[in-house]
From TrEMBL:
Gene3D superfamilies: Ribonuclease Inhibitor (3.80.10.10). This is Leucine-rich repeat-containing protein 49. It comes from Leptosomus discolor. Residues 242-265 are annotated as: Disordered.
């Protein structure tokens, strides 16, 4: 128990240091021009030398702590507790079938949510009876992050601790969760039972959001999100029939029965920071390629146009010279016939 306590304390300190580093970087990015920033109510300046020294201190602190255990994996009854990002590696192990079947709840503590997103598909296969997810100190900061939980095959309970998850300060966060994860039929959120009134309110608050999100996507992007069975529903929605017949509510009830993802809700996705940066880099590369390609086409078109203009100017004189050379060449019929025969012979050889 003492070793467990020390390990958790160590993980908590590493997490705090990491968060301070992130806050420091964000602060420095905002104060690149050495503008005064408010710290504890007083104005001060952040100089490059100070930023380097602070970052060095934080790095040294993390290195010192890394000597101790940096993660913890623990099974308590039917709950799997994962402390620290390194604990996620346990999901790659070959779990005992009996142990994996017991797990009903997985608790993530001191782990970045973006790192958790990458292992959600593993949870589905490793723990078939998993129905409850808990998040504490995971940096859940925006509603969009809950979109990632749609990857799960089953969730009955969701617990998001106030500690380290600023998103719970939004008054409507529970309604958004109910709306986005409606196909799971969540029973409890933070220990409070979900009512029919909550579900109706969630649809009223965020139903238009899914419609707007789907309407902003190009048709080919929308079609790529769904299988063949969903494409007819999408075409039906595009024709405006969905709005007239109230397809939103019908779609919700159908998806609950079928356990499928709604055609419009599927457009509400979450992209991790790393993946977002990769996409931005890819877009940048495509933009550079397209710009270079178009510039080369323009240059080639300009060269062709210049050659064409030059040809138009020279053509009258060239035509006269061609006619003159042809007349001179065929003036002597016998010599011209010999020349033609000689050309044919040369071609055959």
């Amino acid at each position: 128990q003492e070793k467990k306590r020390l390990t958790i304390c160590n993980i908590a300190r590493q997490w705090e240091i990491q968060q301070n580093r992130i806050a420091l970087v964000a602060s420095l990015n905002q104060d690149k021009d050495n503008e005064p920033c408010q710290i504890n109510g007083s104005a001060t300046y952040v100089f490059p030398e100070e930023s380097r020294s602070l970052d060095t201190i934080l790095s040294s602190a993390v290195q010192g702590l890394s000597v101790l255990e940096s993660h913890l994996v623990e099974v308590e009854g039917d709950t799997l507790c994962l402390y620290g990002a390194g604990a996620l590696e346990c999901l790659d192990r070959n779990w005992n079938v009996q142990t994996a079947g017991i797990i009903v709840t997985v608790s993530f503590i001191f782990i970045e949510f973006d790192e958790i997103v990458q292992v959600l598909t593993k949870l589905k296969t490793k723990f078939p009876n998993l129905v409850h997810l808990k998040f504490k100190e995971t940096n859940l900061v925006m509603l969009q992050q809950f979109n990632a939980l749609a990857q799960m095959h089953r969730i009955e309970q969701l617990t998001v601790d106030h500690q380290g998850n600023p998103v719970v300060n939004f008054s409507l966060w529970k309604y958004y969760v109910l709306f986005r994860l409606n196909r799971f039929n969540l029973q409890k959120i933070n220990g409070v039972k979900v009512t029919e009134t909550d579900i109706v309110m969630a649809e009223r608050l965020f139903g238009i959001l899914a419609y707007v999100a789907s309407s902003e996507l190009p048709h080919y992007r929308m079609l790529s999100l769904f299988g063949e069975s969903k494409r007819k529903q999408f075409h039906y929605l595009l024709e405006g029939k969905g709005k007239k017949s109230g397809i939103g509510s019908e779609e919700s009830s159908d998806n609950r029965r079928n356990g499928g993802e709604g055609t419009t809700r599927a457009t509400l996705n979450y992209m991790t920071k790393d993946l977002h940066m990769e996409k931005l880099e890819e877009i940048k590369e495509r933009k550079t390629f397209c710009q270079t390609y178009v510039e080369n086409l323009v240059k080639e078109a300009a060269d062709i146009n210049m050659k064409n203009e030059s040809l138009q100017k020279l053509w009258p004189q060239m035509f006269i010279e061609l006619v003159r050379d042809a007349v001179i060449e065929i003036r002597n019929k016998n010599s011209y016939m010999k020349l033609c025969l000689q050309r044919i012979t040369d071609q055959k050889q």
